[in-house]
Amino acid sequence: MDKIIGKVFITGDNIDTDQIIPAQYLNLVPTIPEEYKKLGSYALCGLPDEYKTRYVAEGKMETDYAIVIGGRNFGCGSSREHAPVSLGASGCKTVIANSFARIFFRNCIATGEVYPVETSEELNKSLKTGDEVEISFENMTLKELKTGKIHQLKNLGDVKSVIEAGGIFNYARKNKMI
Amino acid sequence: MGMTITEKILAKASGKPHCSPGDNIWVSADILMTHDVCGPGTIGVFQREFGKTAKVWNKEGVVIIPDHYIFTADEKCHRNVDALRAFVKEQGLPFFYDPGTPSYAGVCHVALPENGHCRPGEVLFGTDSHTCTHGALGEFATGIGNTDAGFVMGTGKLLIKVPASMKFEFNGKLPKFVTAKDIILRVIGDIGVDGATYCAMEFSGQTISDLDIEERMTICNMAIEAGGKNGIIAADEKTVKYVKERSSKPFTCFSSDEDAKYLSVRKYDASKLEPVVAMPFSPDNVKTARSMKTFKLDRSYIGSCTGGKIIDFIMAAEMLYGKKVKIPTFIVPATVTVEKALKTEKVNGKSLLQIFEEAGCEKPAPPSCAACLGGPIDTYGRSNTNEICISTTNRNFPGRMGSKDSQTILASPYTAAASAVTGYITDPRDI
């Protein structure tokens, strides 16, 4: 994937995995196709009521927001892969945050569900939910479509080779590990 | 250059003489643990990638411990345990702790060491973030997702980045009523919920050596609450005794070199520590229990991998002996072994169970994760409305114990029990 054009959904610091996918939905198994879709419908439904806009509208299976913007420590808490899976299943393509919790980041890479991208700018303060942006993975930039303003994102670093291979299994096959 | 315990274990597991923080290396796993919440998905990945008839890399290496959603009427939860049963049968796995049978164990993080699956110097991966608990036995243990676990299941290996180590050194005698839980909450309060992201948290010093194994588990359990990749405590005589009583496999004890490199070193005088609580909605929102004494509570919960071990219930019983609770107080032993100990362990001549009964606690639930993470709506002890619960568990994110309107306050068993007696957050020294 080179480019994503879509609307952003703004979140705060320390968005934990219980907020991304509350534990009562962990009875759903991500590798069962209809339950994968169902997980998508619950993505970010654990956010507190201060969030006036739901990430996935009531009664819908998919989100209108392909890009989630977070602050520090996005995805902290549980190792539940249901978290990146629910985002991916809902139609989220990338999460852009100031920092990620380790296991969530790793699960994004291993599954290939969403791209976890870091930024040093506080985009969750300067952008608003619903703003349209264009993300270029070639240049690692985020462009605000309304103003044309461009923000630099951080390079993917060590994990780039795993992402480019398409996840841990393809990476291992490419490197003759399996 | 010297290495830390974590670096030494990972170097050994990758067949290298040396490794450094930041190296990406393939390591061999000794144990892969999974449970009912992530097991079916892990098996799904394993079969998708290696084929329907593929065999796990090592039968003795795969340990399956259903523990999350056991005592519920939810049909999908039962289906998930059935999926584990079918897989165990097909693969001929020897280590399966099946609900509803005498082999049922309870919460994986307490059941793993109790049943001899944890040994110093080994590498243990688990599909649960609190897998870091087992660093308390001098091994490298960390939580992974289903996809990585499916990979380990088929290959016995995983590509990981060697974490930098942060050292937390505690010396001095802990005051009465100050516990391992207060130690780890203090650390998380000091460094924040992302203060150790990607790092190994190594705990050392005389205070740590003085703690027994279950208390050390409480500390390593919550390394993830500071973002840590693993928590670790060097194995000593207590560790060796504990492990040898439960496992006949040989193992290697590692300790950090004098010249090992640490990202940071923090030193604490344990004699100055106090009972603390983590207020909603973050484990790093740490205050002294005393400073919160006007905060009114609706319930108290004693249980989970963090706070539902034998030592935790002994502490709670010491506090509740001869007293009455003012708010509903839930007792959830982590494992069947702990459940049995409620009847056999005594404080002042009375069994723990008797003390809890006389204090007016709720009838103990059977061992499982129960309401620590909310779970299905019919879960024992779940906060279904706007309850404010003081709890010996490890997380207090919004909605963690059930409803988004509920609040969780993290505390030690002494503090949770003392608060149950008054109905307010209470420093156990003030009872």
Explain the layout of strands and helices.
The complex is a heterodimer of chains A (178) and B (431).
Chain A: E1 3-10, H1 17-20, H2 33-41, E2 67-69, H3 82-90, E3 94-97, H4 102-111, E4 115-118, H5 123-126, E5 132-136, E6 141-144, E7 150-152, H6 160-165, H7 168-174
Parallel strand pairs in A: 1-2, 2-3, 3-4
Antiparallel strand pairs in A: 1-5, 5-6, 6-7
Chain B: H1 5-13, E1 24-28, E2 31-34, H2 39-50, E3 62-64, H3 75-91, H4 108-114, E4 123-126, E5 140-143, H5 146-155, E6 157-161, E7 165-171, H6 180-191, E8 200-204, H7 206-210, H8 213-221, E9 230-232, H9 237-244, E10 264-269, E11 276-278, E12 286-288, E13 299-303, H10 304-307, H11 310-320, E14 329-332, H12 336-344, E15 346-347, E16 350-351, H13 352-359, E17 388-391, E18 407-410, H14 413-422
Parallel strand pairs in B: 2-3, 2-4, 4-5, 7-8, 7-10, 8-9, 13-14, 13-17, 17-18
Antiparallel strand pairs in B: 1-6, 11-12, 15-16
Structure notes:
The complex is a heterodimer of chains A (about 180) and B (about 425). By secondary structure, chain A is α/β, with parallel strands linked by helices. Chain A has one domain (about 5-175): Aconitase, domain 4, CATH 3.20.19. Chain A has seven helices and seven strands, in the order E-H-H-E-H-E-H-E-H-E-E-E-H-H. Chain A is globular, with a radius of gyration of 15 Å. Chain B contains 14 helices and 18 strands. By secondary structure, chain B is an alpha/beta fold. In chain B, about 30% of the residues lie in helices and about 15% in strands. At the A-B interface, helix 4 and helix 7 of A face helix 2, helix 3, helix 5 and strand 6 of B.
